[in-house]
Amino acid sequence: MADPTILVVGSVAYDSVASPEGERTEQLGGTAVFSSIASGYLTRPGVVGVVGSDFRDEDIRLLKDHGVDVSGLEIAEGNTFRWSGSYVDDLNMAVTLDTQLNVFETFNPTLSSDQADTPYLFLGNIDPDLQLSVLNQMTIRPRVVACDTMNLWIDIKKEPLTQLIDQVDVLLINEAEAAQFTGENSIVNSASALLDHGLKTLIIKRGEYGAAIFHDSFSFAVPAYPMARVVDPTGAGDSFAGGFMGYLAAVNSGVEAEDAEAIRRAAVVGSVMASFAVEEFGLERLRNVTQAEINERFTGFVNLTRFHPLGGGQGLPTP
Ligand code: AMP
């Protein structure tokens, strides 16, 4: 297998989830899993993470079958990370019921020399000290480094998280976390405070309302795909990130001003992947989606958002 083009770091988990549509226990999840599987439809991902001796063989196979290089997945003595959450009251906001770090408590990722020069790096949501440790081990500065985070780390690890944000090109964060990190209430003010950290692209995720992309030279909004039924929002953000970064890696694009078209398209690919993630529990839909379905939904987004500007310097009609 050729070397990965994108290295994905994050949690590999067994999730227990309750939503208005039912519940599941111990389903495969974790930030690195959703984002590597989503990006595996576009490019070659490699995963860096740790699982316990209880990790199921079929789950390793699932990753491999989606083109994910698992040579960076350490198997340690102990139990795999567990997360349990509920969306029963609000599909847009997970309430964490329980987090068991287990093997992540002592995890200290060491990149191989092949992994250390991967051109695209996605630091999925996990302890910012681990995200920083991976970034510091890269021997060649990747073309694009993106990271995600969550409220827990803003609460208890703001200092290393700030250090990390100061160094990455792209931050993906949800609207409530952006407000929590910056102390600003409007999305425009929190975006401007975050861009001041030197980010090239900022993606503020807004659940069922889609995502807003802020860049020094432009802004862009991508809707969420209108769905009749959302079953389990777990992993939507990570699948968005996998689609976004996977597309940039596949077309070898950066995130500079001249890459604006690729950034916009990457955001739409992110929204496409997120829409599949939420359609069924866990990976049940995302793992089975076909390239034809991905392309069809991408075209659906084009149609959903396309309109013509007024030609010839015209203004809107007046009464
Ligand atoms: P999201 O894309 O934000 O819905 O991410 C959901 C995933 O985050 C779940 O599959 C969880 O296993 C994982 N997760 C939840 N809490 C944490 C945490 N503290 N650190 C790392 N991963 C987490």
Can you put this structure into words, describing what you see?
The protein is α/β, with parallel strands linked by helices. It has one domain: UDP-N-acetylmuramoyl-L-alanine:D-glutamate ligase, CATH 3.40.1190.20. 34% of the residues lie in helices and 23% in strands. The chain has ten helices and 13 strands. It has helices at residues 31-39, 57-65, 128-137, 151-156, 158-165, 175-182, 187-195, 236-250, 260-277, 291-305, and strands at residues 6-9, 13-19, 22-29, 45-52, 73-76, 81-86, 95-100, 120-123, 144-148, 170-174, 201-205, 211-215, 218-222. The strands form two sheets. It has a nine-stranded mixed β-sheet with strand order 5-4-1-8-9-10-11-12-13, with helices on both faces. α1 runs parallel beside α8 (236-250) and α6 crosses α7 (187-195). The model has no long low-confidence stretch (mean pLDDT 96). Bound molecules: adenosine monophosphate. Adenosine monophosphate is lined by residues 11, 13, 15, 29-31, 34, 83, 99, 125-126, 152, 234-238.
